Each structure stands twice: as structure tokens, then as C-alpha cells.
Fold each of these.
Amino acid sequence: MSLFAIISDAAASASDAAASVSPILAWKPFLQPAPNAQHWWWLLLIPMSIGVSLAYKAIRVENLNQLPRETLRMAAQIVFGMIGLALALYVLVILILPHLPAE
Amino acid sequence: MPTAKETTPLQPVAAIAGWVFPGLGHIVNGNIRRGIAAMAGVLLLFVTGVLVGGVDAIDRKEDGLWFIGQAACGPIAFAVDSANTAFLKSGSAAPMIPLPPSVLNPQPQASAFKGLAHANEFGTFLAFLAGLMNACVILDALVRAPRSDGAAGSAMRGRRADDASPTVSANTSAGGAA
């Protein structure tokens, strides 16, 4: 499976999740798990990176006026680091490992 | 005149307040902006976790090891665990579904709102991450000098002054003298 196919599948599953409106209408927030989380779980990387960055930088920056910029910078580092790890693992598992001898 | 090596006493009241509610330790110590920022970060993680996984994301009995980290968020973690018991495990929020019997439990049941798979995993993980970050915030509140943010927000007096650069330390000392 090519990288383009994986991205296409992800986009298609995201649009499927957006199209399935009825589970969202019946959803009881905070009481019931979010619907269709298996389709968009990877989006949780964004609030996770922002939350970790904001809490960490709040106690680390010397000048609080730099907090928004430092938070966004660290969040971007986390997100792009994760994307880089994903690409590296894709190359290793999908492209390199299948070409190695079985024994 | 304060120096870069000067230390301040530990702030146990601030640490306890930081456990009672995320960021409250800094606020009661006068570092209000820093406390609000830390509170926003920890609560963003915690609320996102409970929003994604529901109240079942925090379960003291079934996910005991995860709860050790989540408990660092303070009473809000215990409150969500109590809500899980009161609304989900009692069957008041959704009907109980019978599960296959086991040796230990011949008639197991679970709420129809019980979190499964990705929703439960990420909800539990985000709440756990909120607890870990709040533990860092609590430790910072314990060692940070009261009202150390200053007008410019850069006055790193006291114990944390070791982290500051010589330039910042010199400015701090000058500001303290002024």
C-alpha cells in the first residue's frame, strides 16, 4: 500500500465520520464515549500537543509574554516529530522490511 | 541584594493547593498568570480525555494503574470516578448489558455507555497525561518563590534563579535593588 493510498484512506474515513451525523446527534458528551473515535483518533494529537506544551511552558518560560509563541513552537515540534516518526516507521515497515530475506 | 544562588523556602501550601485544583498553587502564591496558563494546559488535557472517553475514562477499580497518574489531577479525577460509579456502573445513565460469564464473575454486566477501543484508550491516556503534567506543575509551585513573575514576567528570583542566564540574573538583581 502506497503512502498516497494511506492518506486517501485516512481522508475517506474522515469524510465518512463527518457524514455519519446520527451518532453525534445522539451523543451525550462527558457521559458517553465520543462516537466513531476509531476514524479520527489521530486528530487528538493536536489537543494533546497543545495541552502538554502549555502546561510545560507555563512553568518553564522566564518571560510569560513569550508563552504563546513558545507553546505553539513546542506543539509544532511534537506534531512534526510524530509525523516524522510515522514516516520513518512507514519506510522501515512497508518499504524496507518486505525486501529483506526471510531468514 | 538578592543573588542568583539565593534560595527560597519550599511552599507546601502552594503544592497542596496545586493538587486541589491544577494551577491553584501558583495563583495562591501570587504567580497568577503562570497559574492560569498551567491550569489551562492541564484542564485542556483532562477535559479532552473525559470528552473523548466519557466518564468511563477514569475508573479507579478497573484501571487502577492509570488512576495513579490521573489522581495527580486532584479531586476532579476522584469526582469523575465517582460520576462513573454513580451514573454508569449503577445503570442509571444507560441500560446494563450482560456479558459472557467467567469463573470469577458468573453474571457480569457493563453499561451500554462503557468506553471501548480507541475512545477509551485515548480518553484514559489524555487524563493520565493531565495528571503527569499537573505533577510537574505541583513540583514547580513547591519550589517557586511567591510573586516571582514580576511586572515583566521575567524575575526569576529564588530557587529557580539557577535556570536564568547571567544577563537575566543581573537584571533581576538590579530590579530587586530598585
Amino acid sequence: MTKNVFAHETTLYENKFPVEGGNFDKAGQVSSQIKAILKRMKLSSEIIRRVALVSYESEINIVSYARKGHIHIQVKPDYVLIEAIDEGDGIPDLELAMQQGWSTASQRIREMGFGAGMGLCNIKNFSDFFRISSDVGKGTQLKMVIKIDKIFDGI
Amino acid sequence: MDLAAIVKALGLKVRSGADLLDRKVTGGFTGDLLSDVMAHSSEGNLWITRQVHQNIIAVASLKDHAGIVLVQGNEPAADTLEKAVKEKVPILVSDLSGFETAGKIYAILKVRGV
């Protein structure tokens, strides 16, 4: 693990939300909770919009492809860190997985409008920093940072 | 332009959020791929879709949409309706196709302004 240069800064909020694999009835609940918390913290709507998207796409990926996982969120004065860690089959070819339109989603998932091969690209586009790693047979780890500008984003 | 004016102009059936029709509509977005809607729609948009399952409510709520229009007379699933009430997301049903629904709403917003 690389040293976090912001580690000395106060943590304004931190939590770990479990996400159930395969349960589409609950899909999106964690992201809704995170959005409500950031709203109460009075972060700018731009930051909330980006965190909500990153969190939602990560949550849907866990629900769609993993057995279980969790979303870890940490809010510091300078940034929001979002990590999505799952236990599942993992991704054998990350380069392929990052290609817009590439998806291994089942027909059932696609019929609901998920699995269009846009999720990981969206996450990358809406984050300031994005890292993905995966262990085949074990699971996938996503790490995203969204920067907070003190002038533009409040806090 | 508020939701009520669009409901009236298109003769939409209100399935949830009858008390929320004073919401302002800032524009519209048409799409059935949820990631596309998440990435490209905006706050206050009226989301036009043929998806009727409950996951559309989380998307509309996360994006602060003004409401959802289901096209071709598609009715929301029972659990979708239940969530819509809970999350305060107006669901409107149009008997027209997606193309005609979007065209009419676009014309209204362009002519009368948002």
C-alpha cells in the first residue's frame, strides 16, 4: 500500500457498506445512503453527482458479478475516497474489461438495462484518480478519488 | 415548465407522485441503458424509458430527475411503484412510442421554455 499524503488530514466521514451479490432488489440502496450523507455534509452538487455515479456503478458491478462485497467511503477536506472490494470470480483481462462496450453480463442483466459495458468507463471518467486490480477466482478491487476544491465545493 | 403542464399536454397517466407535479422540468433524457442515463442525464430532467423494473427508481432518485415517463403504455412493476412512492419519484405513463413521447416533450420545452 502506498503512503497516503493526505493521511494526516481530519476524516470528516468514514463508513463501510456491505453489498449483496445477485440481489437486484436492493441494488442502489448503498449509493442512495451515501448521497444522502454527502448532502447533509453540504458538499457541492457537482461532487455529490460524481460520487453518486461512481458509487452506483461500483455497487451495480458487485450486485451483477460478485458473491458479495462492500463499498468503503472516506471523506477528507480535500477529497472523497471510494473503494469497492468484492469477493467473486475476478476479471482475467482488465484491459478488455475497461473497453467501452465490453461486457460479460448475462441476458437477464442486460434486459434490465445493465451490462452495457459502460460502468467501468463511467467510473474512470467521473473520478480524478482510478485504479482497478483483480485476482481471478478471488475478487476485484476498485479505488477512486474525487477531489474537493475548497473554493468550489464547500466544506 | 412544471410536470403538471407536460402531464396535461400529453395526457400522461400519473402512477405515482400526483402531489409532486409542481416540480420543474429542466429538460429530458431518453434511454434504456442505466449507465447511459447515470452518465448523461441531468438534475431536473424528465427521463423517458421503456424500463419498468424497480432499479429505475434508484437511478431517477440519485440523479434528482423530475420524474420518469414510461412509454408505449408500459406500466410500472408493483415493486417499482412501491419504491417510487417511498423515494418520491413521479411515474407517468405515455401511450405513445418513445420517439413520439420524446418529440412532443422536446417541442413543449423548446416552445414554452423550461
